[in-house]
Design the sequence.
């Protein structure tokens, strides 16, 4: 299996590359600068400069794009649209490293994590930008996409337990009542989805077991 990780130099991207290599996948890191991942193959290119030819031949493309400054938040939508346009009507699957703020907190799907009063105000613009990108992605029937939301507490330096629970559109808690996952365990879930491909056209979520 050939997999490309876009924006692979980020914290999530590097761990996804590492996990994919440990499973024997043929991994290409797509990066803007020097490749600091473990991938032996790399392409130095900005996400917005990628072409259809750059992504041709991959079974899976993982979108690990992320920006946080207010002026760049709209790029969550524009970058995802760009990748979708490049992969439109192809057999290449697109896995999106998503956010937790848009996970639903009720069965009616009328309230989200970001709506709760204890959700940090500083993160609301980011959550809104990522939720908008997800809604736009849902409208794409021409792309084999899967959106993967982490747990509410997404720990960059968390330990790798090797175990996780896969949920769906709603915030899922583990047996301890926690919504937490490490980047390392999240990477396992992403690579599992890359290999199995059971959730095309769906948003799934993951939490530490």
Sequence:
């Amino acid at each position: 299996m050939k997999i490309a990780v876009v924006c692979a130099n980020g914290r999530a991207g590097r761990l996804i590359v590492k996990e994919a290599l440990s499973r024997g996948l043929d991994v290409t890191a797509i990066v803007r600068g020097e490749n600091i991942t473990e991938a032996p193959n790399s392409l130095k290119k900005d996400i917005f400069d990628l072409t259809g030819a750059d992504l041709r031949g991959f079974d899976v493309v993982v979108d690990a794009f992320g920006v946080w400054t207010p002026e760049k938040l709209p790029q969550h939508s524009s970058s995802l649209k760009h990748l979708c346009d490049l992969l439109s009507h192809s057999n290449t699957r697109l896995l999106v490293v998503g956010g937790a703020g848009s996970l639903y907190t009720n069965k009616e799907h009328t309230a989200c994590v970001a709506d709760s009063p204890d959700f940090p105000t500083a993160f609301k613009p980011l959550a809104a930008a990522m939720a908008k990108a997800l809604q736009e992605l849902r409208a794409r029937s021409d792309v084999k996409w899967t959106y993967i939301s982490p747990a509410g507490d997404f720990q960059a330096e968390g330990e790798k337990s090797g175990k996780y629970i896969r949920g769906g559109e709603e915030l899922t808690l583990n047996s301890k009542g926690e919504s937490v996952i490490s980047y390392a365990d999240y990477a396992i879930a992403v690579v599992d989805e890359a290999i199995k491909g059971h959730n095309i056209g769906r948003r799934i979520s993951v939490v530490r077991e």
